[in-house]
Amino acid sequence: MSKTFKFPFIFLTAFLLLSNALSSPVYVYSKTQDEIEKEIDQKEKELDDLESELTKAEELVAYFESQMGTSSSQLENIETELKKVEAELELNKVKLDKYKKSLEFLELDIEKKQGEMNENLVNVYINDRRGLVDVFLSNGQVDGFWKDYKYRETLLDADIDGVNQMAIEAESLKKKKLEFEKKVGSLSDENKKLATRKQELTDEVSYYNSLASYNASLQSNIRAQMGAVQQDIEGLNADLRAMMEEEAVLIGDVNGGTKPLVKGEYYFYGRGRALYQGHGLGFSQYGAYGGGKSGMSGTQIAKFYYPGTVIGTASGNIDVIGYGTMNIETYVSGLGEIPDKACGNQSQVNTRPDKYRLDDPNSIWDCWPENTIEAQVIVARSYALAYGGPICTSASCQVYKGGTAKKWAADETKGKVLKSGGSIIKAYYSSDNNNGWGTATHRNPVWCWDFAGNCGSGFSWLQGVNDSSFAVKGPYTDWMWRTNSYSLKELQSMLEWYSKAGYTYPSSSDVKNLLGTTGTLKDIQFVRDVSGRASKVRIVGSKGTSDINGEFFKIIFNFWVGNKKPSGEVDPVFSLTFYFKKAE
């Protein structure tokens, strides 16, 4: 009797497993297994294509992630975040497409399993019934009958095991399908949040653009009242940066006027080459080199360049672009900027090879006075801690090369920073500030973007100091230059040309207004800061006088000689330490 009821019980078990796994009754499919296989192949190809799209979308999101926070402009950072959100939305779209294709793939796989189990269940049923009857009819011997029956029973068991295994696989596919359906739902929810954030960012961009437009007419007054160096030096807008870069290209490979001066005409002359010496604010590296040679200590050098400051202590971590978060002492140990080692004697080199090296009298870049290097580290530590965001590793911030070559200086000045009013100062510095009579006064004229040069005196700790008595001369400290000579009529045409050129910085419309105020050009005079730099250029005309920011006048003249070449060659004004003279 046990043999008689074995198959129906097993068949029922497999049927229940199949029904539970597929949540549908067993039926004969209209699609053939070959057709299902072809559809699966097609879905696999579609999934591969989506995988490639997914990789590209992930790379785009990662790129915008890396760009976030790298700009000093709030608007630019908002626009970058907006682009990142848009990229994330596109990434999620590709992910959704991929999950939906995966679901289609799984459904086809389940359909395939349904077909296979359906065929196998039918075969089991047919084979079991047919096999039993065939045995009775064809076998005349009892022993032969039971042998044949046992053989058939073994085949039947194998078929049933296969059906059971297919049911288990179908159950696994069903669970995976549910997981994908959850991911689709989760991504849909995330997309709703991203869409909301995108709208918020779009509204912010619109707000800032409208605010910028509203403030356009008040821009000069606003800039005149700003006290933040961050806005002046690192917050230059794109138009102004582009203008300065264009000017640098125009004057970078020329050496000034070469033609004989014409008696009765006027020319500009001066000393220094700002493009290679730096902006002239704060700590001067060539000046500090001379200070160290003259016996000044590291703290004395640092304090000299930032009047009224005191040496304090500070610690902490900073974010370095491309390197991540690191301790400030680790950071200054890998600082670039100036030589790593101090000049020492043979005994010092033998004892501290990490700190000293013998000086090569034919080179200035092999080693520097140890006090100078210590001063540079104090200044750089102050600048980095006060920076207020991820700091770049180029000269746009301060040069960081990594490693531990300046660790000795970091250890000997550990924690030392420059403070004013209890706060760490953002200690700006450049290569050689002495193209006048020392360091310039902040906002007068350097990094002052008011057209008339009315910018105030800036921070108390960023004032002009005279380091001429000890500063070592750099390659451009006393480099003298002049322009070719021009008549007042030609210089009048310079202003007229610029007023029609459509530039933003300096504004062509401001030059046009100046011409309306001054009339025909009669003379050019100067207002200078304590370093001798031209903070303002005073245009004296037939109707009256009006001032132009010294930096702006330099740009106007350089664009004129660079683009129009009125004398036949490019003969620019190379620094703000310039003068105007009549040829005799």
Please provide a written account of the structure.
With 584 residues, the chain is mainly α. The chain folds into three domains: 2-214; 240-272 and 477-582, no CATH class; 283-427, no CATH class. It is 54% helix and 11% strand. It contains 17 helices and 15 strands. The strands form six sheets. It has a three-stranded antiparallel β-sheet with strand order 11-1-15, with no helix packed on it. Strand 8 (416-420) and strand 9 form a beta hairpin. Helix 1 (2-22) runs parallel beside helix 4 (142-215) and helix 7 (238-251) packs across helix 17 (550-563). The chain is extended. The model is unreliable at 1-30 and 211-232 (pLDDT under 50).
Q: How do the helices and strands line up, and which of them pair or pack?
A:
Elements: H1 2-22, H2 33-67, H3 74-138, H4 142-215, H5 219-225, H6 229-234, H7 238-251, E1 266-271, H8 274-277, E2 283-284, H9 285-293, H10 298-305, E3 310-313, E4 317-320, E5 324-327, H11 328-333, E6 342-343, H12 346-351, E7 356-357, H13 370-386, H14 407-412, E8 416-420, E9 423-424, E10 429-430, E11 480-482, H15 488-499, H16 508-518, E12 521-528, E13 534-541, E14 545-549, H17 550-563, E15 578-582
Parallel strand pairs: 2-10, 6-7
Antiparallel strand pairs: 1-11, 1-15, 3-8, 4-5, 8-9, 12-13, 13-14
pLDDT < 50 runs, ≥5 residues: 1-30, 211-232
Shape: extended
Radius of gyration: 40 Å
Query: What share of residues is helical?
Result: 40-55%
* Helix and strand composition category: mainly alpha
Q: Taking strands numbered 1, 2, ... along the chain, how are they ordered across the largest sheet?
A: 11-1-15
